[in-house]
Amino acid sequence: MVPKPQPDFAREARARAAEMSEIRRKVHRYPELGFEETETAKLVAAHLAKLGFEVSGAVARTGVVGLLRGGLPGPTIALRADMDALPILEQTGLEFASERPGLMHACGHDAHVAITLGAAHLLAGYRQELRGSVKFLFQPSEETPPGGAAAMIEEGVLDNPPVDAILGLHVNPHLPVGFIGVKDGVTMAAADNFRVVVRGRGGHGAAPHQAADAVVAAAAVIQGLQTISSRLVDPVVPVVVTVGTIHGGYKANVIADQVEMHGTVRTILPDLRQQMPETMQKILDGVAAAYGCKIDFDYLRGYPPVENEPAMVSLLVEAGKLITGPGRVLKIAHPSMGGEDFAYFLQRVPGVYFYLGAGKQEGPVYPWHHPQFDINEEALPVGAAVLAQAAWTYLQGSPGRSEE
After folding, report:
1. Looking at 36, 82, 142, 340, which residue is catalytic?
2. Which of 21, 95, 147, 180 is the most exposed place for a label (fewest CB within 10 A)?
């Protein structure tokens, strides 16, 4: 039998660029928080059903799974897209800006939905030639631990048929369009959270000696926690301790009796991650003793590190070069200290998580979670083509899976 020619996913994706842009803008206009993505899920399910996929809704509450069964027997690869937005007031001024005040797609999940639906359209055109199946996982609540990935896994999305490999991506405003970034091994950090409550003794602002100032003690806590990375850990070992919120006090002339803080800890090395609660507790105990306060401390384990499987990285590199051309697939040297619950999928099956260049050609570059975050929509067809190509290559039997 004469083999069919290699699909031109790059050309086909460019032909669908306007459709992907329309999807992205609709999702962007109506953002939804984690486990509340009901309208986004309806949009996704409708597109998948139109393509003739087997569609399951209400997975992990608001997730959607679409299954494309190929015409030939073979393994199953999954493509994952997160769907949730953030509690941020948008300041982009875009004509399709959020119509829900205080909610915004400030991390690019609107683009992930559009890109993965684009890949679904591309692969649907080759279902008879596919040697296996493709599962499309549209996941709720990536932004807020415990996240939606673990819940989807618990509900069996990696089973029936069993998933043999998985792909995920994230748009990156710091990479130009047409470029891919990928790393072997650990590519993103473990992401834990913590809560600290400083309990002092209130009083009059003019008589601090009669009180135990929770605000001053809280300041010492923040400064002390920063010494973990600057003085307690080897300087070449990645670790981040960030206090993200602080709440306390009543009035300018009132000494606060309580301050509550929430923050995040990012680590790469398992041993260091294990030690962090004890290290932080020692600092808090010292501050409490020095300032005459009591300090409550809760350490919450979050997402594990995102660890790419080397053979799947090779697969992605191969697919990326076919779509973007030589010299545009960049091997990343150092892991990001960001966190992602895609890590839970990678603990179960081999896979790869990569960055898709989505930088704007002009103007300032705003990072993820910024109220003016935006992407270059020319990245949408590139991402869809790379996902489709990688899935096609895997199922047709290239590096990344062993032949039976």
Report:
1. 142
2. 95
In this prediction the pTM is: 0.93
Domain boundaries, the chain: 9-187+305-396, 190-303
Please indicate whether residue 84 is annotated as part of the active site.
Answer: yes
Q: Residue 277, exposed/middle/buried by CB under 10 A (0-12, 13-18, 19+)?
A: middle
Superfamily of domain 9-187+305-396 in CATH is Zn peptidases (3.40.630.10)
Q: What is the pLDDT of residue 363?
A: 87
Measured distance CA(128)–CA(105) in Å, rounded: 36
Calculate the CA 145 to chain-centre distance: 11
**Nearest CA to 137 among 111, 154, 162, 116?**
116
Q: Which two tokens stand for residue 44?
A: 């996704």
Q: How many DSSP H helices and E strands does the chain contain? A: 10, 16
Nearest to 183 by CA among 338, 326, 66, 40: 338
From 84, 143, 192, 257, active-site residue: 84
Q: Max Cα separation, the chain?
A: 91
Give the mean pLDDT of the chain: 96
At residue 120, the pLDDT reads 98
Instruction: Quickly list DSSP for 66-82.
Output: EEEE-SEEEEEEEEEEE
Residue 319: per-residue pLDDT: 97
Euclidean distance between the first and the last CA atom of the chain, given in angstroms as a whole number: 20
Which tens digit of pLDDT belongs to each residue from 136-153? 999 999 999 999 999 999
- The correct answer on CATH 2.40.10.10 for the domain covering 190-303 is no
pLDDT of residue 3: 55
The amino acid at 347: Q
Q: Is the dihedral of CA 96, 147, 59, 120 positive or negative?
A: positive
